[in-house]
Amino acid sequence: MSGKIIRVNGPIVVAKGLLAKMYDLVRVGEDALWGEVVKIEEDLSFIQVYEDTLGLSVGEEVINTGSPLNVELGPGLISSIFDGIQRPLPLLESLSGFFIPKGVSSFSLSREKRWRFLPQVKSGDTVTEGDILGKVKEKDTFIHYILVPVGISGKVLDIQEGEFSIQDTIATIESEDKNLVPVTMLQRWPVRLPRPIREKLTPDLPLITGQRVLDSLFPLAKGGTAIIPGGFGTGKTVLEQTLAKFSNCDIIIYVGCGERGNEMTSVLHEFPKISDPYTQKPLMDKAILIANTSNMPVAAREASVYVGVTIAEYFRDMGYDVALMADSTSRWAEALREISSRLEEMPAEEGYPPYLATRLSQFYERAGKVKCLGRDGRQGTLTIIGAVSPPGGDFSEPVTQASLRLTGVFWALDTSLAYRRHFPAINWSQSFTLYQENLRKWFKENISSDWELLLGKVRELLQKEEDIQRVAQVVGIEALPEQERIILESCGMIREVFLIQNAFDPIDGFCTFKRQKKLLEIILNFHEFSWNYKEKNLSFEEIINHPLKEEIARLKELKDEDFFSKVEELEKKLE
Ligand SMILES: Nc1ncnc2c1ncn2[C@@H]1O[C@H](COP(=O)(O)OP(=O)(O)O)[C@@H](O)[C@H]1O
Ligand SMILES: [Mg+2]
After folding, report:
1. Phi, psi dihedral angles at 505 (to 5 degrees)
2. Residue 34 belongs to what domain range?
């Protein structure tokens, strides 16, 4: 099955006589560049090429592999750094200019490395797809489960224990139709096809991020979806990276998609130095990075999110909590737009193809809390958090609007907050979460029964502040009634002490729920105290300039040992 190139148009190559199916993976030209068939018209195949097409000429051969783009799944994935089509990127330099040579078909996972396989079933046992066959220890502590491949069930004829490479047969299963199926630790899956599950469940546990404004005001559930829209410099990348560092997940997949190479390089430099706040283990021991930066071919950017989400599903299927961060989905949509225009498709809004929303939804739909395949009833979650970079920070553009309708949390970043260096620049009146209801029970049982009441008060104060500010802009602060000025003061405290959080601060960068709650309580107590200042025989000036305010503001700097005793001391003083 081979054809000839008849036209080259940027990342799109047209070949004649290829006899291809949609999404067939092909090798293009003398350099055997990787490509994928994305449109078929009679005997013409339109191919998006994942590598630089410069130098390709008409008449060169195209060979059809006959199978779709798939990923390699198995031990060795963790700590890997891949390009958009899962080729390993061992060198940092590869992100800042040094590319993988054209047409290289390096394996994603090492064929040499040997892994100690421990069977969990024995010969004679009956197994079905998704059952755990055995386990492998990867990194120091991670248990990588080897599952019965999708579509296979039957009797285990033979299962090995010992050191194996991922291509060695570790078990043989006799299928129901009496076929002998050799099973290895290496499995493959086509990236555009969601991996099957037993059942979708309601996401009802929070993804804890250690970021106060997110955890408290706009919580995301494990298995849910969130977007982070924001203009240039509002903190999308910092927030995505912070979430990668601090989310309480077993596996983190970070897809750097179409953004500057140096940002990805900084991730690569930084992640290995960071330790997971929950386990104190190096962050890279649970991370996989996929890099398709702005200087890399545009078609591979289109593929990179599917590669990421397929690897994420693979770990979810073992029963883990997985989070995928994509920075930025707008650059991904732009790749879609460019390819679509080269295919001469009819453009819809702002030049994006009419199927933009469908594609986005196919991506976000792969998130979820699920009952995995396999008979042990284990559950896994896949959370997706996509950054969106609307041009000029205008949220009415198509990518933001389409994503907004498909996802459960909207963490809106605000240019004016970022300009004032209020970080994370989450706009508290624009942002929302749809998971509040499902998480209610967890908060009630794990944080406190009055948690919602507490947050209700905070929301109410912030809402009042907005109204008062509007009046203040006309009449001036001095002309406001004293009680309203107290609300402004308290909201100032909510912002400074609670909402603002420096992601790079060694103490305050990650804030536990216990601390979040104490901070909120002390701020609200102080508000109560100042609201009734007259009963305390204080003057308005005295309450506005009260020394306790400074002490509350400095709580964030304290380590846990001092923090809780100091809060207690302040609470006593307030009484
Ligand atoms: N949570 C944060 N804490 C401290 N500084 C931040 C935070 N978020 C953003 N910043 C500052 O804003 C700058 C721009 O953020 P970045 O994430 O690169 O923006 P974007 O990706 O939206 O263009 C960062 O270099 C950093 O100085
Ligand atoms: Mg960025």
Report:
1. -75, 130
2. 2-68
